[in-house]
Amino acid sequence: MFVCSGNTCRSPMAEGFMNRFLEESPWGGGFAACSSGTMASRGLPASEMAVKTMKEHGIDISRHRSSPAGIWIPPEDTLFFCMTRRQKMELQNIFSGRSSRIFLLGEAADSVLEPEEVPDPFGASLDNYRKIALILLGMVKDLQRSLEKDLRFSA
């Protein structure tokens, strides 16, 4: 599960990238990415700029609807990937027994060249969304490789 604040920009974009990678991966069967927001309202669409940006990557997130973190209890084996340290702390409060499964995306992805936190593009220009999408693409690709490696060793 990818987590940001409003669940209308960063986390739906990360979810879209990961689900595409899972579809293309021989290890992706049985897995699906989802997203939520620590301050999200329920049922809002992805931001127009996020939809446009992801369309440029061949991914349609137009049917995404926001979901507040904690509104439903995800399976015990769910991994959480947060965009900021604050969101990680908020999620640790919501899911207090799952701290070992809650990560900062930048740390979990081992993205040496990228920032550990992913800035919020909400209300910014299309170019800003494109920059954030490229950061997320790199992080999610790194994360997917890392998870695949773990799956291979545990299989």
In brief:
This protein is an alpha/beta fold and 155 residues long. The chain is 43% helix and 8% strand.
What labels describe this entry?
single chain; about 160 residues; alpha/beta; Rossmann fold; four-stranded parallel β-sheet; 5 helices
Please describe the biggest sheet, giving its number of strands, its sense, and whether it closes into a barrel: 4 strands, parallel
Average pLDDT: 93
CATH class annotation: Alpha Beta
Distance between the termini: 22 Å
Overall helicity: 40-55%
- Structural class designation: alpha/beta
**Largest beta sheet: what is the strand line-up?**
2-1-3-4
User: Treating each run of at least 4 consecutive H or I residues as one helix, how many helices?
Assistant: 5
Number of strands: 4
List the helices and strands and how they pair.
Blueprint lengths: L1 E3 L5 H15 L10 E3 L10 H9 L23 E3 L2 H10 L7 E3 H4 L17 H29 L1
Parallel strand pairs: 1-2, 1-3, 3-4
